[in-house]
Amino acid sequence: MKRRILVVILLAAYQTSTFSQTKQPIYKDKNAPVEARIDNLLSLMTLDEKIKQMNQWTYGKNANPNNIGDQMRAVSPLIGSLLYRSTNPEYRNQIQKKAMTESRLGIPIIFGFDAIHGYRTVFPIPLAQSCSWNTDLVKESCEISAKESWLSGLDWTFSPMLDVARDARWGRVAEGYGEDSYATSQYAIAAIEGYQGTNLANKYTIAACLKHYIGYSLSEGGRDYHYSDVSMQTLWETFMPPFEAGIKAGAATVMSGFNDITGVPASANHYTLTEVLKNKWGHDGFVISDWGSVRNLVEQGVAKDKKEAGMKSFLAGVEMDMVDNVYVDYLPELVAEGKVPMTAIDEAVRRILRVKMKLGLFENPYVDVVPEEKRYLLPEYLKAAEELASESMVLLKNEKETLPITSKYKSLAIIGPMVKDSINIMGSWEGKGQPKNVETIYEGLEKEFKDKATLNYALGCDFDGEDRNGFKDALEAARKSDAVIIFLGEKKHWSGENGSRSTIALPKIQEDLVVELLKAKKPIILMLSSGRPLELIRLNKIADAIVEIWQPGTMAGSAVAGILSGRHNPSGKLSITFPQTTGQIPIYYNMRQSARPKLGHYQDIPRDPLYWFGDGLSYTTYDYSDIKLSATQIKKNEHLIAEVDVTNSGNRDGKETVLWFINDPVANISRPMKELQFFEKKLIKSGEKVAYRFEIDPMRDLSYVDSFGNNHLETGDYFVIVNDQKVKFEIVD
Ligand code: BGC
């Protein structure tokens, strides 16, 4: 009500001041207040025009320009949005021109696409990015992705994915930022700032879309699209925080998930979509369904047909229907029958128009057309891609300083299916990345070790299958080399959407290859490229060094070669735990304490996972001082400073991330054994000491949320934890 009154006053003021010049409708006037422009436009739109705003179309997979031409002619000038698969900005501009000039009101289309970890310059997959702990670099990668996307005709990306994931059988772990809510929240903010910049109306910025709202990563057994049983406590504690952080950071849009959340599917969930997202958090943009998730309500057993599915989704709070046409087909009848009120239609369209206005599309509906060489893969983009890829890689094991490759190795066996690969190394959702632009690992190594070491390459085996014919050449290469570097991993479709696997071990043929190469009795260095944590229980025992390189993208070659040579000192730390075996899932660092902590573990494997969240080595060594606290007792409204000095005691410069955890040992709702509350990555030169500081704000960092979304801060003891140090302090009234 208050907002309405304000709009009326603003409008009256505006009309008086511009009385003499108001020939054009208000909605076309960029100087008029946004809500007044929308009011005006809504008052002019027919129901059909409104409903068409609420649908996203696509024109198929074929990016052949001739087909696009035909398809483009078929596109109605009234459509709200297009999932735009072409890279051609001119086609976009032509389609947009139709909307601007051939439709009655000239409402611009919003063009969306999945630029998930880059557009043409492909950055490492998000899971890898989160192991960098470098939010500045993540932000920069999103800025670059936004520029390349915008110059290709896009206004909107379906990114970032904020599904906190703890089951690596689920292929979509690749697309998120790991197992921790706080880390995911920080990366969410970085990504939104990168995509959206400071003003969405500026050139080169695109709208972000937080997905998949919500609880999707709990799909049972890691089987994609399946039911997820999410308790309200877990919903609030684990899944909501990154979305809330994203909304606070100004994300323009949200995507509702495919999953059924404990009986009420995410795309028909009034509680999550309206009560929380809109009413509690105040999101003023719009929600788009996931591809077909409106019609999926029929399969999920909550709607008898598409019409009912459309009604349920719409009334729950999904404003745009992704490529389904359910809204277009059924909302007119639903309105006529009085099942969907006009006020709700207006509110939904208002939200969509608001995002379009914020993007400045009414004033600047077209994107700049520049030649491809000015659009893509600019030198600074490639530099950022290499930096992020190298900072994402995690050195898991390094016995007897096997790495880096120094002059002690004159010849290197380079073996495995990933060495010359230029497709799988980009990972899933590679945007518009092209294999021809990928620097393969082999190319990177040739450049890095030219004049320094002989490279003896052999394929060894394929990613899967049973063909062991390549083993012989591989063993020969290993025998004549001083060290054996084996590049194993996953094909890109083994992770990502619909990329569920019942085991997270590598196929047997790949493990067998490593066993075969042991015969050469040379140091074994494993370089693993995957979209998920892997089961390494067997390989870990026989490898001298292991680096998880993830799916590094366009600059794979230089990044990997730099890590191997020591040009890049590894600084990645795991953002997701590597279990001993697949059967140990779920296992994550912030579990709650068991009733009998020493008992109840699997009898056939060690109690702990193979690698914990936060693990990751460097070629240098860091010594941590004792944690210093500014006080041991504070009131709820006071702040506490925790500090630790880190000395680089090795002989290489390095970047070290300090992960600050909190533990609340006794609370009315039990707390995890530790929870990440802050992290910071800094460069520390060899021999230097650097201070790290965490200012604890009790309400922000020590409170917990209950199953209704209310925060509680209790008095009593708390611990701040860094590495193995645990220091107590107290909160008093
Ligand atoms: C995926 C989304 C994606 C959409 C559009 C769906 O299948 O689940 O993550 O944004 O397709 O491509």
Question: What key attributes describe this structure?
Answer:
single chain, 733 residues, alpha/beta, TIM Barrel, Rossmann fold, Immunoglobulin-like, 3 domains, six-stranded mixed beta sheet, five-stranded parallel beta sheet, 17% strand, globular, binds beta-D-glucopyranose
Structure in words:
The protein is α/β, with parallel strands linked by helices and 733 residues long. It folds into three domains: 2-289 and 342-358, TIM Barrel; 379-584, Glycoside hydrolase family 3 C-terminal domain (Rossmann fold); 622-732, Sandwich (Immunoglobulin-like). The protein has 22 helices and 27 strands. The strands form seven sheets. The protein has a six-stranded mixed beta sheet with strand order 11-16-15-14-12-13, sandwiched between helices. A five-stranded parallel beta sheet has the order 4-3-2-1-10. Strands 19-27-26-21-22 form a five-stranded mixed beta sheet. A hairpin with a 2-residue loop joins β26 and β27 (725-732). α3 (47-53) runs antiparallel to α13 (326-336), α7 (135-150) packs antiparallel against α16 (379-392) and α16 (379-392) packs across α21. 54% of the residues are buried. Beta-D-glucopyranose binds at residues 114, 158, 211, 290-291, 497.
What does this entry show, briefly?
The protein is of the alpha/beta class. It has 3 domains: 2-289 and 342-358, TIM Barrel, CATH 3.20.20; 379-584, 3-Layer(aba) Sandwich (Rossmann fold); 622-732, Immunoglobulin-like (Sandwich), CATH 2.60.40.10.
